[in-house]
Amino acid sequence: MSTDVAIRPGRAHAPQNRSRRRPRPKRDRGRVLRLYVPLGLYLVFTLIPFYWMVVFAVRPSGSTTPVPWPITFEHFETVWNDIGYAVFFRNSVIVGVWSLLATTVLAVMGGYALSRFRFRGRSLFMVVLLCTQFIPGAMLLIPLFTIFKTLGLINNLGSLIVADTVFNLPLSVILMSGFISAVPFTVEEAAMVDGCTRLRAFLAVVLPQLRPGLIAVGSFAFIHTWNNFLFALMFVSRQDSFTIPVGLSYTIGEYSADFGALAAGGVVAAVPVVCVFAVVQRYLVTGISAGAVKG
Amino acid sequence: MKRTTAWAAIAVLTVAVAGCGSGSDPGSEESGKTTITFWDNNGGTRTPIYQELIKRFETANPTIHVEYVGIPIASVQQKYDTAIAGGDTPDVGGVTTSYLANLVGQQALEPADDWLGKSAVNGKLAAPMLDSVRDTVPDGKLYLVPGTSNLDVVWYLKDKLPEAPKTWDEFFTDAHELTKAPDQYGYTIRGGAGSIFQVLAEMYAYSGVTEFFDASGKSTVNDPKNVEYLTKLAGLYKKDTPEADVTNDFPKMVAAFGTGKIAMMHHNLGSYNDQVKAHGADKIGAFALPTGLSGKRTIVANPVDGFAVFKGSEHKDAAWKFVEFLVSKESNSYWNQQTGQIPANTEAQGDSWVTALPHLKTAVDALNDPNTAVVSPPYYLPQFSSITKADTEPLFQKVLLGQMKPQEFLDTMAQKLTDAQAEWKKATGG
Amino acid sequence: MASLRRRAVPYLLISPTVALIAAFLVYPIGSVAYYSLQNRNLTRPWADGFAGLENFRRMLFEDELFWQSLGFTAKWVVAEIGLQLLLGLALALIVNESFIGRGLARSLVFSPWAVSGVLTTGIWILLYTPQTGVLRFLGQPETAVLGNLDTVFPAVVVTELWRGVPFFAILLLAGLQGIPGELYEAAAVDGAGRVRRFRHVTLPHLRDAIVLATLLRSVWEFNNVDLLYTLTGGGPAQVTTTLPLYVAQRAIDSKDFGYGSALTMAGFVILLFFSLLYLRLSRFGEER
C-alpha cells in the first residue's frame, strides 16, 4: 500500500525516507533508457565546466594538456594569500545566511497571507512584488546607495544583507505562496476544529509539508546572495568586508587575466556550497509523493 | 528532534560568525592615529605591492594608518561614480587619465599644484606625463599625480619569431609566414572590448599622423593612410589570425595567446607578469610598434596612471604625505619594477632594473628617442570613452566581418570625434 | 473585535515585506522614472536639464538598436525559458525517482547554481576559446564559437542553460513533492499509462508552479546581463545585445543616464504588460 497520505492533526512528521530504503528491482531496460541515459548525458554536460575549472586550478598557466600533470597548487596560494580569500569567504557566509533566514521567514509570512486570505489589495500586492523585479539592479544603484548612506549602513555587511533580502523577497514570497497553496486548507481546518489556533495549526501541520518549498526558496535566496557582485562591490568599501564575487573579479582585468587564480578561487567558493547542497537535498522529499512516475 | 537541533545549531553558528563581523569605523582617530583610505584602481594582483609599500609608509609615519581597498579594474569607474554620487569617497584613490575628466567634471578631486610646488618630488616627475594629465582637464590644473605610464608593445614568442620586425611590411610578412593551419597563427587581433584604442595606436604608428585633430578641429582618424592600415589589418582577419578574434576582449585574447599557438599579440607593458607566467621570461619578448610611412616612430600616448586626493577627504595632509611617499624614488621604483611599467619619477627611471628588463628597455628607449612623435588622444573629451567603446567597438567588428568598409567606419568615428570636439570647445569657451 | 483582529492578520503578515519594499525600492524606482524624463549625462553636465518625452521619442523613432535589441531579447528569453523548463522538468522527474546514487546525482545536477557569475563566464570563455577550449577534443579545433555569427547564439544559450536549469529542477522537484502518491495509484488502477498519468496528475498539480517559475525566470533572464556582457559584450556587431545590456552600455559605460533610464522604463512597461497578460492567460490561481 502507498505510504500514508492523510496527515492527521498532531502528527508533525510525514513518514519519510521509507521509499528510499525500499529496494527497487532494476528489472527493465526501459528504466535505464528513461532514467540513466538522460541523466548520464546531462551530468556530463553539467560536469565538463567543473572539470575544466579544476584543471585550470591545478595546472600551470599556459598549459593546455587536458589531464593536468604535474599538478601545482600555486593558484590556490595566490588566491588565499595575495587576494585574501578567507575573509571574503567568511563575509559571503554571513551575508548569505542572514539574508537566507530573513527572506525565508518573511516569505513564509507573506506567502501565507497571499495564499490563504482573499484580502483587499491582494492583487495589488502581488503586482507590486512583480514590478520590483522589472528594473535591473544597476540602474537602482545610486539611489539605493544614498538610502543606505542615510541609514549609516554603508561599509557594513548589514547593507548587503538588507539589499539582498529586499531583492530576494518578491520572488520568494510569490514562490512560497505557491507552495502553501499546494497544501490543501482542509488540513489546517481539521486541526483548527480540533482546537488549535491558526498559528499552531500552521506550525504543526503545514510547515512540515512545506519543507521542500522551504528548501527551494531558501536555496534561491542564499544562492542569489552568494553570487551577488554588484551590491557587494558598491555598498561596501572596506577590504575586509568584500565577498567572494568581488574576490573572484580581481583575477580578470585589463592588465592581467589569471585564469588559474580564477579557477582556484572558484573551486574554493563552489565546493562548500555544493557540499551543503548535498546534505540539504535530502530534505527535498516529504515522502507523500513516493513513486510519482511509476516505473 | 533532529530538525530543530539542526536549525538551532545553524542559528548559533551564524550569530557567532556575525559576532566577529565588521570592525571599527575607518577614518576615526584612535589614540592619536589618523586613518586614511586608499582605493587601488586595479585591485587583486597589485594588492601585495601596495601592502608592502603601505607597511613601509606606516613604519616611517607611525601616526598615519592607511586602509587599503582594492577595486577590480573592470568596475572602477562605476565604483567611483557611485561613491561620488553618494558622498562616500576615499582620501586617496588610484586614477588614470582615461576617466580623470569624468571625475574632475563631477568636482570630486583636489588639485595637486599647490602641494607639488612645495613637495620634495617637485621637478622629479616626468614632464610628458605631467603635461598629459594637465591636458585632460579644461582648467589645466594637475588633478592626478603620475605614478606610472604604459606603452603599447607587441608581445611575441621568441622561438617562433627570432627577430622582431622593424617595419610594418616586415610585420605583415611575419604574421603571414608564421600562420600554419590548422591552429598556428602569426597574429591575433583584439576585436572585442578595448579594441579601438589598440587599433588607433596601430593606425597612427603606421600613418605617422601626429595630431588627433587638425588645425580646423576635424578629426584625423579617417586620414587616407589610416584607412590604408585598417584595410590591411582587416585583411589579416581569419587568414593570419584566428576567427575568434572578432570577440576578443583582453581575457580571451591573452588566454589564447597563453597557449603558445599564436606568435604575436599587441597589448602593453602591463601584462608582463602574465606573459612571464604563461611562457617563461626567456621565451617572451616585446617590440614597440614598428615605424611607419613617415619614417618617424609615432606613439599614441597611453593613459597616465597615478594618485588623486579627493575633495571630500578630511585628512588631506596625511593624504598628500602618502601620495608623496608613493611617487618618491624608492616606492615608485619598487612599484614599477613589480609591474613592469615605466616609472613617473625620473630618478627611478634611471634605476638599473629598468635597463635590465629588455621589454622595458625597448619602451623607454622608444619614448626617450628625440625622433619619436607622441600623439595625445583627447581624453579631455567627455564622450571619448563612449565614442571609443559603445559607439565604435561594434562597428569595428563589422569591419572585421566584412559587413562594413574601413573607410566608412573611420569616417563615422571621425565625425563623432569632430562633433564632440566642437561641442567641448563651445562648452569650455574654446 | 475578534473578527477585526482576524481581518488584520493578512495585513500584519505582509507588513514587513511591504515596509522593506516601500523603504528601499519605491524611491529608487521612482528616480529611474524621473531620470527618464531628463537629459542627464554624468560627463556632460552642461547638457543636463528637463527633456520631457525627448528620450522616448528618440528611442522609438531614431534608435535602431532599441528595436533590434528588443527583438533579440524576446528570442533570448523564449529560447532560454523554453529549454530551461523542458530540461528542468525532465530532470525533476528523473531525480524524483528512487535509484542508487540519487543523492549524489541531485547534488551534481544542482551544482551549477553554486557557481558565481564571474566564474561561470570565466570558465565558459575558456571552454569556447579555440586554443583552450573543449571543441579541440571533439575534432573541431578551429571553430570560433563566439566569433562566428552562426554559432554565437546557440553558444550563449547553452551557457545560460547550464546555469539556469537547476532553478527549474529544484522548484519543480519541490513541487512534485506536493502531489499525493495515492493519486497516481488511483489513476493506475483506472488503467492510465505513464504518459496519461503525467498529463492528468502531474501537470495539473504543477501548473501554478510552472507558471510562476517561468514568469519569474523570464523576468530574470530579461534583466540579467552579466553573462552576455562578459561572454560576447553583446556582439559580435551587437547581434547578441538585449535591451538591458544596451541599457548597461548606455547608462553605465557611456554615462548617459537619462537615455538609459528611458530605455529601462520601456523595459519596465513591456515586462509589466506581458506579466499581466501571461498571468491572465494562464488562469493562474484559479481553482482546478
UniProtKB/TrEMBL annotation, chain A:
Official protein name in the record: Transporter
Taxon lineage: Bacteria, Bacillati, Actinomycetota, Actinomycetes, Streptosporangiales
Family according to the record: Belongs to the binding-protein-dependent transport system permease family.
Record GO cellular component, one term: plasma membrane
Keyword Manganese in annotation: no
CDD domains to which the protein is assigned, alphabetical: TM_PBP2 (cd06261)
Residue segments, region Disordered: 1-26
UniProt topology in membrane: Multi-pass membrane protein
Residue intervals of the ABC transmembrane type-1 domain: 89-280
A biological-process GO annotation: transmembrane transport
UniProtKB/TrEMBL annotation, chain B:
UniProt key word Acetylation: no
Coiled coil start-end: none
SUPFAM superfamilies, per the entry: Periplasmic binding protein-like II
UniProt keyword Membrane present: yes
PROSITE patterns: PROKAR_LIPOPROTEIN
Pfam annotation, one family: SBP_bac_1
Position of the signal peptide: 1-18
Protein name listed in UniProt: Sugar-binding protein
From TrEMBL, chain C:
Pfam families given in the database record: BPD_transp_1
PROSITE patterns in UniProt: ABC_TM1
Residue ranges of every copy of the ABC transmembrane type-1 domain listed in the record: 70-278
GO terms (BP aspect): transmembrane transport
Keywords for this protein: Cell membrane, Membrane, Transmembrane, Transmembrane helix, Transport
Highest taxon of source: Bacteria
Keyword Chloroplast: no
Gene3D superfamilies attached to this UniProt entry: MetI-like (1.10.3720.10)
Chief site of localization: membrane
Localisation per UniProt entry: Cell membrane
Keyword Transport on entry: yes
InterPro entries: MetI-like (IPR000515), MetI-like_sf (IPR035906)
Membrane topology listed for this record: Multi-pass membrane protein
Family note: Belongs to the binding-protein-dependent transport system permease family.
Name this polypeptide is given: Transporter
Record organism: Planotetraspora mira
Organismal lineage: Bacteria, Bacillati, Actinomycetota, Actinomycetes, Streptosporangiales
